[in-house]
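Quick start: what a row looks like.
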Amino acid sequence: MDAIRLSPPRRLSLPVENRWGAGAMSVLDFGDPKRPVDLVFVHANGFNAMTYRTLLAPLSGTLRIWAPDLRGHGQSDLPANTAGRRGWTDHRDDLTALLEGLDGPPVVLAGHSMGGTSSLLAAAERPDKVSKLVLMDPVIWGRLTVGLFRLPLFDRMASHIPLVKGALKRRSVFESREKALSGYIGRGAFRGWPEMMIADYLTDGLVETSDGFTLACRPDWEASNYAEQSHDPWTAMKRLDRPVRILKAEAGSTCSVATDPRRLPNVTVETVHGGTHFFPMLKADVARDALFDAAV
């Protein structure tokens, strides 16, 4: 195993300024810094780029990978304001800014869950910066549901969504990282995860304060990401003339795109057999192979 593969990712801080507020986007930079970026990978709601270190690091001997922390997550300090928010256009615009700052040829844009959907939205804005997309169980509701989310008063019903209720009840302060780790292992969404991956999540998922260790992604921001769904991934898929590969969980999928999607000639959908929504954590070899196949 070479030195690049063994070395930890570098941390970059990229300025972002748009209508959602200015600040710095934290980006983990894997691989040879002398080569152009090959792949950008975007994390799921509530997590951060470091969570996927063990998924991405084995690819860094061949590829250069950027993994950003989305607004309101990890070490990014972009403002995360829930007031008046309706969808993920803020994440879209932040990723668009990241793509526009890249030198070199178009990149593979990939992501998990919300990160996959946000990547899709950004690629539709700047397709010239993207060669392919790999979306791992992206959050894509059926067309009718997307239409309902776009209605002016529908967001008032969001407080009844179980994921929203769960996020708002989430414990946000811990006495130590060790207490947080012991509290997460084998529980809830983390059931079955490798312990190292949970520890990586907590590395950038907790911020030390005078009150203890606080979640970097505030519960109200995580809840807002679950609740505010007025963005339109179906229109983004129609607009794109780039290959879009969707890997869909067999159980508990958040993706409503059919295996043989009609009128979406550039979209292919595959089911990850035995996979849940968290298959990038539980079946990392499947996710890693898909990223490698797209980028080489």
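That is the whole record. Residues 89-100 form the longest helix (12 residues). The CA atoms of residues 105 and 278 lie 31 Å apart.
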